[in-house]
């Protein structure tokens, strides 16, 4: 099977590439413009097994069209996008152009070149501000409150409409909750991640916490402690990137026999910001300073998946549903960068 991974030099994409290289004999091609991903990740992955790497921007429509026509991929896993919520509020067109327009073009080229399976990275941000503290099902209303979430929801709709028109072209849409942790690679008995999260700027909680623990930042900001949650800080569903990555491989198998669908990817378990801070302190035995600052615009109190659909429908078995492992792998990775 020939698989194209867009955004494979980035955080999540690189973990899927790693699993494909380690687990199966499929032919892997990564397409990435290295705008937020990096070449060092590609070099690390090349040590596992050879694969094709093409540095190209998805906005190069003619080149994308020609490339897909020549290569005739069986499946595309599409990660390439921008994903900083605050940046999307300041520069919405940057998000609509890269996330929605480029995705639309990729879908068209995929259909024209005979691709049968398309796996799309969407986000819990499509649900918007869920008022009740309840786990979110895929059937909940979608109501994004920022251009990032809207750019992904629009891509979901375009993908669904395109597939209705071309029934041989099937999709799985994954709505990720908070992806975290790093490569679970062991050297003898020591956890030594070879790849992990390295965004610049970093906006995700767990890498920010471990950076603070390592003295790369002076203190950790906790945005609001007056939410309607037991300790007042926001609650999120943190899923290990290895489990999330593995779901993409299952999705390709799933589409062999099954129809297109949308799935949440999370553990159905929420931890507050303060619980994450304490978990990291417990795991790595380092104390560090935190400070309570004002809430950020658009932060909701509680964002936790109901993952019963993916668990009952796909052969996906999470292996790292363990906050200690998530924090430890993020910390071991952070020490290397
Ligand atoms: N990290 C999370 O917690 C999270 C949560 C929900 C959804 N997502 C989605 O998952 C996907 C991957 O996220 P990530 O955290 O790995 O991000 P990332 O920034 O680490 O990776 C994105 C990759 O896409 C590449 N890219 C971006 N625009 C491109 C373009 N026009 N042409 C070619 N390559 C391009 C970047 O260089 C980068 O390597 C994104 O679609 C994101 O919206 C991530």
TrEMBL record:
Q: Which NCBIfam families match?
A: galE
Mention one GO biological process in which this protein takes part, according to its record: galactose catabolic process via UDP-galactose, Leloir pathway
Q: A single Gene Ontology molecular function, please? A: UDP-glucose 4-epimerase activity
Instruction: Give the gene name.
Output: galE
For this entry, the protein name equals UDP-glucose 4-epimerase
| Pathway the protein takes part in | Carbohydrate metabolism; galactose metabolism
Do you know which Gene3D superfamilies this protein is assigned to? NAD(P)-binding Rossmann-like Domain, UDP-galactose 4-epimerase, domain 1
InterPro entries given in the database record: Epimerase_deHydtase (IPR001509), NAD(P)-bd_dom_sf (IPR036291), UDP_G4E (IPR005886)
Task: Keywords in alphabetical order, please.
Answer: Carbohydrate metabolism, Isomerase, NAD
Q: Which organism is it from?
A: Halarcobacter mediterraneus
The NAD-dependent epimerase/dehydratase domain covers 3-266
- Oligomeric form and interacting partners: Homodimer.
Which family does this protein fall into? Belongs to the NAD(P)-dependent epimerase/dehydratase family.
């Amino acid at each position: 099977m020939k698989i194209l991974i867009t955004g494979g030099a980035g955080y999540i994409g690189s973990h899927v590439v790693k699993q494909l290289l380690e687990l199966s004999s499929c032919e892997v091609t990564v397409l990435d413009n290295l705008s937020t991903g990096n070449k060092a990740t590609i070099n690390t992955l090349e040590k596992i097994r050879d694969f094709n790497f093409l540095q190209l921007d998805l906005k190069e429509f003619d080149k994308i069209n020609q490339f897909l026509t020549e290569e005739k991929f069986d499946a595309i896993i599409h990660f390439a996008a921008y994903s900083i919520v605050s940046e999307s509020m300041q520069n919405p067109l940057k998000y609509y152009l890269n996330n929605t327009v480029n995705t639309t073009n990729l879908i068209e080229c995929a259909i024209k070149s005979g691709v049968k399976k398309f796996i799309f990275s969407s986000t819990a941000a499509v649900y918007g501000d869920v008022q009740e503290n309840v786990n979110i099902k895929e059937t909940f209303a979608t109501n994004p409150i920022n251009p990032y979430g809207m750019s992904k929801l629009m891509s979901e709709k375009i993908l669904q409409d395109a597939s209705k028109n071309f029934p041989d072209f099937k999709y799985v849409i994954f709505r990720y909750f908070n992806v975290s942790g790093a490569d679970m690679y062991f050297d003898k008995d020591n956890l030594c991640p070879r790849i992990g999260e390295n965004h610049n700027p970093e906006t995700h909680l767990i890498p920010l916490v471990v950076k603070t623990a390592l003295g790369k930042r002076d203190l950790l900001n906790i945005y609001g402690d007056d939410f309607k949650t037991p300790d007042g800080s926001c609650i999120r569903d943190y899923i290990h990137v290895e489990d999330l990555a593995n779901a993409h491989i299952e999705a390709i198998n799933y589409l062999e026999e099954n129809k297109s669908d949308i799935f949440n990817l999370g553990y159905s378990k929420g931890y507050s910001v303060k619980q994450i801070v304490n978990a990291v302190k417990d795991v790595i035995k380092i104390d560090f300073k935190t400070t309570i600052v004002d809430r950020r615009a658009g932060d909701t109190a509680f964002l936790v998946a109901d993952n019963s659909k993916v668990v009952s429908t796909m052969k996906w078995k999470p292996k790292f549903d363990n906050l200690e492992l998530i924090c430890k792998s993020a910390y071991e990775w952070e020490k290397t960068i």
